[in-house]
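User: quick one, sequence for these tokens?
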């Protein structure tokens, strides 16, 4: 009877129970130990259920009949003490695992019995969940890839994860547990791969039409193999700038692996702050404005239409708010303000050059002193309109 069940399970991928990374291995151990602790209660209860049903069946006339039985100190002790001890063990195990396996916590070991060397620098990978593909930026090497990830064996990996639009979940079962990718936010994951091989990563959170094909290849390589892989990305890739990123950001399915030999400076911060488009205010700038108290009274028109005010036209009365656009497009930095002032000066000089020299002769007209006539010689009886213009 067991053979058919094993045959059905033969096609299952047991990577979760046989991972290649230390973090995933510890998570596997936590899962197994927790399950065994719970089975200490579940198995006896199921067995006793069958035993009582058999022993006290209707046809068993020899079974004890004790209608006045209502208490057993020994039974009460077993019923309450055993689950309590298991709950205590599960609580301690969960508390320790929650802190030791915190995805934000830097690694202190590579594998059981081997601590992380002090001189080893973790590999940083910036992960962007796009529709429907994954982008990986290697800031230490200045390269980027789409739908392909590689890391050296026994070197800590530090993932910084975000999303371009909707929430996704970054998951490599052989490496570590899943961690969510959310737009405008940065989540982190620390992990390590201990065995070379080809593994699969995917999104574990439904995100639309192309979700099923939102998968990527993860290569676990030795250090020499990883160096060759980086060199291949640099040789066969194209530059990744903001314009190219905005093209990749558009929804697309079944995208093959792409390589980028260089990455524009500041692109990751722009992606994280949702301001890759030219002229768009970054979230960091917006939060800094809020931290400093907002834009004072000059920004009242920008914020009042957002308020649901039953006394002031529900935020749409042009007589109350004015007829101009009522939103902040961007706030310039001091360097940008200086550049804008220099540009205005340059344009003004160009316009003056196009108009030619200006006639600076004194103007004549009603109420103005005629040229060459001193003010003292004017008649005191002159009308007020002839007096010098103050």
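Assistant:
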């Amino acid at each position: 009877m067991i053979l058919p069940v094993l045959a059905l399970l033969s096609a299952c991928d047991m990577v979760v129970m046989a991972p290649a990374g230390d973090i995933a291995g510890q998570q596997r151990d936590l899962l197994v130990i927790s399950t065994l602790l719970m089975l200490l209660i579940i198995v006896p209860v199921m067995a006793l259920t069958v035993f009582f049903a058999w022993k006290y069946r209707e046809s068993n006339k020899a079974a004890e009949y004790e209608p006045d039985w209502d208490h057993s100190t020994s039974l009460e002790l077993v019923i309450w003490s055993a689950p309590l001890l298991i709950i205590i063990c599960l609580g301690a195990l969960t508390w320790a695992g929650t802190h030791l396996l915190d995805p934000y916590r830097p690694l202190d070991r590579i594998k059981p019995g081997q601590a992380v060397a002090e001189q080893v620098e973790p590999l940083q990978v910036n992960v962007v969940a796009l529709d429907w593909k994954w982008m990986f930026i290697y800031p230490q090497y200045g390269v980027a890839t789409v739908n392909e990830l590689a890391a050296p064996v026994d070197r800590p990996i530090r993932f910084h994860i975000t999303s371009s639009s909707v929430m996704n979940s970054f998951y490599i079962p052989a490496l570590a547990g899943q961690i969510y990718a959310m737009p405008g936010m940065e989540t982190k994951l620390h992990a390590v791969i201990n065995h070379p091989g080809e593994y699969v990563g995917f999104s574990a959170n439904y995100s639309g039409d192309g979700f099923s094909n939102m998968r990527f290849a993860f290569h676990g390589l030795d250090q020499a193999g990883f160096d060759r892989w980086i060199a291949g990305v640099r040789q066969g890739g194209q530059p990744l700038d903001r314009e190219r990123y905005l093209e990749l950001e558009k929804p697309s399915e079944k995208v093959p692996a792409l390589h980028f030999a260089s990455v524009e400076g500041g692109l990751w911060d722009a992606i994280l702050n949702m301001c890759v488009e030219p002229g768009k205010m970054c979230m960091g700038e917006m939060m800094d404005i809020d931290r400093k108290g907002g834009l004072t009274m000059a920004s009242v028109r920008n914020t009042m239409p957002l308020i649901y005010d039953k006394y002031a036209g529900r935020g749409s009365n042009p007589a109350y708010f004015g007829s101009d656009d009522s939103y902040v497009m961007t706030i310039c930095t001091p360097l940008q303000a200086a550049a804008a002032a220099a540009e205005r000066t340059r344009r003004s000089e160009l316009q003056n050059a196009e108009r030619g020299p200006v006639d600076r002769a004194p103007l004549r007209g009603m109420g103005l002193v005629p040229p060459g006539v001193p003010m003292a010689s004017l008649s005191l009886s002159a009308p007020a309109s002839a007096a010098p213009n103050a």
